[in-house]
Amino acid sequence: MKAIIAVENKEGTESKVDNRFGRANYFVTYDLETDQIDAVVENKFRNGQHGVGIEVANFVVQSGCKLAIGAKPGPKAESILKLGKIEFFIVENCNVKQALDMYRKKLK
């Protein structure tokens, strides 16, 4: 399964999870089966005036990822993620590695 994680910087698994999902600077796509980062992409929607959460949620759905990790999305973005059957795992004050560890621990 692939995950997409909203992050502040491009430091791999040490990247800090952004406290704003829709306005995160970057997104890390992570393959949970191979335990590797697939890509780090800039959030081209983050500086938009309106509808940023909706644009990001649509981007996540189109990414093929089945899990999104980050701060709680807004209500419109959350609705789109639910319609797209994207699982959302909310985390705060951690890096990518810690967020993934928390998610795996939740599964046990």
Tell me about this structure:
The chain has helices at 52-63, 75-83, 96-107; strands at 2-7, 26-31, 36-42, 67-70, 87-90. A five-stranded mixed β-sheet has the order 3-2-1-4-5, with helices on one face. By secondary structure, the chain is an alpha/beta fold. The model has no long low-confidence stretch (mean pLDDT 96). The chain is globular. The protein is 31% helix and 25% strand. The protein is built from three helices and five strands, in the order βββαβαβα.
Largest sheet strand order = 3-2-1-4-5
Number of helices: 3
- Count the E strands: 5
Tell me about the largest β-sheet. Answer: 5 strands, mixed
Low-confidence stretches: none
- Cα(first) to Cα(last) distance is 16 Å
The secondary structure category is: alpha/beta
Mean pLDDT, to the nearest integer, reads: 96
Brief account:
The protein is of the alpha/beta class and 108 residues long.
Notable traits:
alpha/beta, 108 residues, globular, single chain
Topology:
Layout lengths: L1 E6 L18 E6 L4 E7 L9 H12 L3 E4 L4 H9 L3 E4 L5 H12 L1
